[in-house]
Design a protein that fits this description.
The protein has about 550 residues and is α+β, with helices and mostly antiparallel strands. It is about 55% helix and about 15% strand.
Length: about 550
């Protein structure tokens, strides 16, 4: 995915020396490479002609001098070709082009003098170099190159004409070639500017497309619905994080897998939809997550480059949202009632304690007083849990090293709950950081560990706490499991409902409050369909940097 970057310039950047020969762009190097190859080939051909043919038959005025000039031009061509292959050019582009042109003009002028009338067409060899100057510079400097070459060659030819070495028509021919220099440079400048504008527009379009792609990715990742991109062969080319949450495939789902590996039901729906797009697809329930999903498929692209977008909508989410609104209203009501209940409850508890200490109660009444006090404590505990639920939105998230936190908390729990240290095994890497309210995390972990100890076999390692980074790197997955009988299938859908309990004396609010607190902190608490025993998974937001020291 393309990434947005912001370049910042420090205050003292103006003191830094400018970069050498700005690394010439790849397209400019390619043009220099083509012109350099042309120069080397022309030098080789001229040298070959000078060695293989009798130059006198070609009316060459000074054969030996022409052979020397052709040899020097060939060596210059090879040297220039090697020079432009360097990774970092010793000169900026404008100076590089001027140096190459100067060498061309010098050695071509030598061959023109040595060749006499036969050397008249040699100025044509400068046209590719001047065209490259116009294409790459795209400024008036390119016309300066053309003017410099024309002045030198016309001045040389005019001097030779005055000495009688060449005729007037040859001078006129050279003048026409020099005029062609300006025409070629003008055309190259226009085409170069047009090409540069097209390249800039294409680059800007590329940036816009990359930015739009990133925005789309962020939107898709934040969608409540799961989204999969499937090609024509049934291979999943991409999906958002909600897919793994809805289908229950944490850690094993990745792009490039076949759709059937994600979900056989989804693969069947996709196959049926490709055969008949009008066929209605009923919602289906995922066994691992117990979620009811509605599937919607949309064709994207066409032909061999097409594919399918698959949307997964959690039908239980709307029901949960409505339930949460009702529960929030009920929470506010019960909180106000709880405050009112605590005052008379304290009076009842205090009166029972005074009667017990007074000693005037009959022996049969002591048992009744004990029942009053025990039930008063139970009511007080329920009231306390209700009040905690009402304060769930008052979180103060911070960066927490998960491994150190859990180990420290387990040390407290084993002392407070009379659990042997060997009964709890911890496998958490020390570099995992999460963003969470410390008090809320303490409450959730304490509740889960206490519940696990009440239902496990109470042996060494009966409770196991492990954590790992999510496969996308933006989450931390913590799992707590025990070796008890687990949660019966008929109770799984109700395990997080308020006031639901299978234990005598339980309030049925512990797991409900734990999930609500996790949700308030942007985490997710769920019961996994693993056996034996029960396994709860808490998925955190991962923090990449530790908290700053206070």
């Amino acid at each position: 995915m393309a990434r947005l970057t912001i370049n910042t310039i420090s205050d003292n950047s103006s003191l830094e020396p400018p970069p050498l020969a700005s690394s010439i762009a790849a397209s400019s190097r390619r043009i220099l490479w083509i012109v350099g190859l042309f120069r080397a080939v022309c030098g080789a051909m001229l040298l070959g002609l000078a060695l293989l043919l009798d130059l006198r038959t070609l009316n060459v005025a000074a054969p030996n001098s022409f052979l020397t000039a052709a040899s020097l031009y060939f060596v210059f061509g090879l040297a220039a070709f090697g020079w432009i292959q360097q990774e970092r050019m010793p000169l900026p582009l404008a100076q590089t082009l001027l140096a190459l042109l100067a060498g061309d003009v010098f050695f071509i002028a030598l061959m023109m003098v040595a060749g006499g009338s036969t050397g008249a067409p040699l100025p044509i060899l400068l046209i590719p170099q001047l065209a490259a100057s116009g294409w790459l510079l795209r400024t008036q400097t390119a016309f300066f190159h053309a003017a410099s070459a024309a002045i030198v060659l016309l001045g040389l030819e005019a001097y030779r004409a005055l000495d009688g070495d060449i005729s007037g028509p040859q001078l006129f021919q050279t003048a026409l070639i020099c005029l062609g220099y300006f025409a070629m440079v003008g055309i190259a400048v226009v085409i170069g500017r047009y090409t540069k504008a097209s390249e800039d527009l294409a680059a800007q379009r590329g940036i816009d497309v990359a930015n739009l792609e990133q925005v789309n990715r962020l939107i898709i990742q934040d969608m409540q619905d799961g989204v999969l991109v499937v090609d024509l062969t049934g291979v999943v080319r991409g999906h958002n994080a909600q897919v793994t949450r809805l289908l229950g495939g944490f850690g094993r789902m990745r792009g490039g897998m076949r759709l059937s590996e994600f979900s056989t039901t989804l693969h069947d729906y996709w196959r049926r939809w490709n055969e008949d797009m009008s066929e209605p697809l009923p919602p289906f329930k995922v066994e691992t997550t117990q979620r009811l999903l509605r599937v919607r498929l949309v064709r994207i692209g066409s032909g061999l480059h097409g594919g399918t977008l698959i949307y997964l909508e959690d039908l239980g989410r709307a029901q949960n949202d409505a339930q949460q609104m009702k529960l929030a209203a009920m929470g506010r009501l019960t909180a106000s009632i709880a405050h009112e209940v605590r005052n008379p409850l304290s009076a009842i508890n205090q009166a029972a304690q005074l009667l017990e200490e007074d000693g005037s109660v009959a022996p049969d009444g002591v048992r009744l007083l004990s029942m009053i006090r025990n039930n008063a404590k139970r009511i007080d505990r329920i009231v306390g849990e209700v009040l905690q639920l009402n304060r769930r939105d008052r979180q103060q998230p911070e960066v927490i090293p998960l491994g150190d936190f859990i180990r420290s908390l387990v040390d407290e729990i084993v002392q407070a709950e009379d659990i042997p240290q060997s009964g709890i095994g911890i496998e958490i890497a020390s570099d995992l950081l999460v963003m969470f309210d410390r008090g809320h995390l303490n409450q959730i972990a304490w509740n889960l560990i206490r519940n696990a100890w009440q239902h496990c076999q109470r042996r060494d390692g009966s409770i196991r706490v492990s954590a790992r980074a999510g496969y996308m790197g933006d989450a931390v997955i913590c799992e707590l499991s025990d070796d008890g009988p687990g949660v019966a299938a008929e109770y799984r859908a109700q395990i997080f409902e308020p006031f639901f309990t299978t234990r005598s004396g339980g309030t049925g609010l512990g797991l409900y409050i734990a999930r609500e607190i996790a949700d308030a902190n942007g985490a997710a608490l769920e019961l996994l369909p693993k056996s034996p025993g029960a396994t709860f998974r808490l998925t955190f937001k991962r923090a990449l940097t530790p908290a700053a020291p206070k």
